[in-house]
Amino acid sequence: MFVQRAMAKVRIFDNIVAEATTEVTGLRLNGINSRGALMPDFVATRQTIGNRLIDWAEGTEQVEIASVLPAWYDSGSTATGIYIESEKSFDDTLSGGWVAYIPEYAASAATSGASLTVITRDTTTGETREWTYSFADRLGIRHITRNHIYEFIVERNPSVSPVLNYTVCPWVDNEIKIPDFN
After folding, report:
1. Three-state SS for 112?
2. Residues 61-84: tens digit of each pLDDT
3. CA gap 58, 42 in Å, rounded
4. CA–CA distance from 160 to each of 37, 120, 129, 144 (Å)?
């Protein structure tokens, strides 16, 4: 049985050199879907994405298009990430990351305001700073799709401006071990 998560995972990792005396202390997503999620659109059982013909009715394809109404996007809603020590980056070189789970949202003129805020702290002065990146304008991300991981790695000393490297990958592998019943 193939099951698709109804959420997207957004995470950031701190890869700032220790000598920079700056650390990532949080993430906030500004402008999210505030109404929930639906099952993928099975009405159009065959849909072309790029040059691929997708048969959603099979239930085994990765969802590539948000299945919610653009009106569900709420520019005033935010999601705050939590720190998870055991979180690992795709290449397993970084661990301990800030993670937020959010419902997908469809691209529209309104969603161009959605942004990611990286919160940093100077480890010598305690001063905090916030760096906001527009998903659409600065990062080129037009919509957030369920069952995907949006991974950001913060590099360079953010006393000037952090450098964000990112990747978006399908969230495909998950094994659940169910113990025997008595």
Report:
1. helix
2. 566 667 677 778 888 899 999 999
3. 9
4. 38, 12, 11, 28
